[in-house]
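Office hours follow-up: a student asked to see two folded examples consecutively, so here they are.
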Amino acid sequence: MSAPTSPADLYRHSLRLLLDKDIPAWVALWAEDGLMEFPFAPDGRPRRLEGKEAIAAYMRPYPDHIDLHDFPDLRIHQTTEPETIVVEMRGVGRMVATGAPFDMTYIAVVTVRDGHFTSYRDYWNPLAVQEPGTDFAGSSR
């Protein structure tokens, strides 16, 4: 597949990689100085990941914790800045450790430059990690 050219296409491609559990390919979509932020992260969870290596370290164990099945209800909104999109979606699957259902709603503000993610603010629901068996980040950074 040729490299996606628009932010929306790159984002859709990134979701396919997550469903395929291809974290190295997902990380390859990032700029070296990319920034991932979690503004609503609860205490003990990372709020800011600076650089591709930090993002890779955070995401590497993701498939060991969450078995993603689908991203229903995906809506991608264009903004007045052509490189920035706002995404609304749900991620559904199961928690690997417990087999419990995983169902998380997300809103993300994503910026792409030169075919790579440069900024990703992920407004996920911090209340979801209070459920037993939901240590899906595998980290307390």
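And the second, which I mentioned at the end of office hours:
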Amino acid sequence: MYHLFRTIDETGGLTVTTAERPGGVRVLTLVGDIDAATVGVLDEALASGDRLVADLSRVGFLSCAGVRSLLEADDRAELAVVAGGHAVTRSLEVTGADLLLKLHPRTGDALVALAAVGLPAAEAGPDA
């Protein structure tokens, strides 16, 4: 199955769409660039829940300020990050955040991982 996205030209902006999922999980879909000018939008979105999926698959640029925001959110909430493109993955690798954050290739994988958080080991499965 192929995941196709319509390209949205966000000149210097960041758009966040939220969706509530079962189990109190909020999915944040981010589109645009995350830099010093837009990191406040990311901070606000990440402060909106205790169980979050941050889908960065449509983010074209992730600055150190954005990485810091993700790390701070991970300290206070259950956060799963969907890292899509090369620019985002590279920023996470260069800063070492890829070793600290729970990264997933797709939103569905992140949702499954968050659903397993808090379950007894027998119910979470052998890979939990």
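Two things to take away from it. DSSP finds five helices and five strands in the chain. Residues 122 and 128 are 9 Å apart (CA to CA).
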